[in-house]
């Protein structure tokens, strides 16, 4: 992670290693994908402080937070109903394109 600014965007740039399927690097026994997250300065400072107190990295904090949010929405019935509706619509559009 490093700080940078440019074109009006300031913040902490975090290269988070997110678990994924397919090609990528190995990180703690899971496949990962590198992505860039631009955080506002205040949020970046808070993330660094939380990670430091926990004795972990900002990357680990982001991965843990993202995993917790995904688990939260996974059990949210309203969210899953909307997701199913969107997936059904996408499938319908793809089926039309395939004809």
Fold topology:
Elements: E1 2-6, E2 9-19, E3 25-27, E4 30-39, H1 41-54, H2 58-74, H3 77-98
Antiparallel strand pairs: 1-2, 2-4, 3-4
Helix pairs in contact: 1-2
Low-confidence stretches: 4-8
Tell me the number of strands. 4
Helix content: 40-55%
* Total number of distinct structural domains: 1
Alpha-carbon distance between the two ends: 47 Å
Q: Percent of residues in beta strands?
A: 25-35%
* Largest sheet: number of strands, sense, barrel closure: 4 strands, antiparallel
Q: What is the helix tally?
A: 3
**Could you report the average pLDDT, rounded to the nearest whole number?**
81
Spatial extent as radius of gyration: 18 Å
Basic shape: elongated
Write up what this structure looks like.
The structure is a single chain. The chain has three helices and four strands. With 99 residues, the protein is α+β, with helices and mostly antiparallel strands. A four-stranded antiparallel beta sheet has the order 1-2-4-3, with helices on both faces. The model is unreliable at 4-8 (pLDDT under 50). A hairpin with a 2-residue loop joins strand 3 (25-27) and strand 4 (30-39). It has one domain. 6% of the residues are buried.
In short:
With 99 residues, this protein is α+β, with helices and mostly antiparallel strands. Helices cover 54% and strands 29% of the residues.
Entry keywords:
99 residues, alpha+beta, four-stranded antiparallel beta sheet, 3 helices, 4 strands, 29% strand, elongated
């Amino acid at each position: 992670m490093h700080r940078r600014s440019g074109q009006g965007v300031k913040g902490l740039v975090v290269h988070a290693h997110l678990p994924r399927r397919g090609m990528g690097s190995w990180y703690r026994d899971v496949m990962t994908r590198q992505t860039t997250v631009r955080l506002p300065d205040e949020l970046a400072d808070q993330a660094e402080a939380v990670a430091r107190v926990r004795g972990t990295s900002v990357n680990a904090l982001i991965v843990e937070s993202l995993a917790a949010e995904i688990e939260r929405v996974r059990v949210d019935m309203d969210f899953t109903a909307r997701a199913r509706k969107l997936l059904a619509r996408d499938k319908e559009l793809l089926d039309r394109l395939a004809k």
